[in-house]
């Protein structure tokens, strides 16, 4: 994993942090923009898991989980209100834990460490926005 990958990962947190703070400040539509961005990123993480599943010839349930990420994130956007902020936050943490136990012996630990850091900040941003 290169420094470039880390920079891109951390840059991806900027919308989480800015939109979380904007929602706390009462800026109109900030919750929706945050939840939309979270859904996009969660779907992206499902795509990464799909790639790992194919590359590492993992069990079929891994492909099912990867596709479920996209569908689960889509539900966040279909439901009225912003009650999905907390389930979305928990989803980021649970997906990272799933990946950690599944991939810890198969992929670079720096990747999983970075994923953990990014998921934690994303989850905290969503939780903060739910206040």
Automatic annotation (TrEMBL):
<feature type="transmembrane region" description="Helical">
    <location>
        <begin position="33"/>
        <end position="51"/>
    </location>
</feature>
<keyword id="KW-0472">Membrane</keyword>
<feature type="transmembrane region" description="Helical">
    <location>
        <begin position="58"/>
        <end position="78"/>
    </location>
</feature>
<dbReference type="InterPro" id="IPR021836">
    <property type="entry name" value="DUF3429"/>
</dbReference>
<protein>
    <recommendedName>
        <fullName>DUF3429 domain-containing protein</fullName>
    </recommendedName>
</protein>
<keyword id="KW-1133">Transmembrane helix</keyword>
<feature type="transmembrane region" description="Helical">
    <location>
        <begin position="84"/>
        <end position="103"/>
    </location>
</feature>
<feature type="transmembrane region" description="Helical">
    <location>
        <begin position="7"/>
        <end position="27"/>
    </location>
</feature>
<dbReference type="Pfam" id="PF11911">
    <property type="entry name" value="DUF3429"/>
</dbReference>
<keyword id="KW-0812">Transmembrane</keyword>
């Amino acid at each position: 994993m290169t420094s470039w990958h880390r920079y891109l990962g951390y840059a991806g947190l900027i919308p989480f942090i800015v939109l979380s703070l904007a929602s706390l400040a009462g800026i109109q539509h900030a919750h929706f923009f945050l939840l939309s961005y979270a859904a996009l990123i969660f779907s992206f993480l499902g795509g990464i898991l799909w790639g790992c599943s194919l590359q590492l010839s993992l069990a079929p349930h891994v492909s099912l989980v990867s596709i479920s990420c996209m569908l689960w994130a889509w539900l966040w956007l279909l439901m009225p209100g912003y009650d999905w902020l907390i389930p979305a936050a928990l989803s980021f943490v649970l997906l990272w834990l799933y990946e950690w136990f599944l991939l810890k012996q198969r992929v670079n630990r720096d990747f999983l460490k970075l994923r953990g850091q990014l998921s934690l900040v994303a989850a905290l941003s969503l939780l903060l926005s739910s206040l």
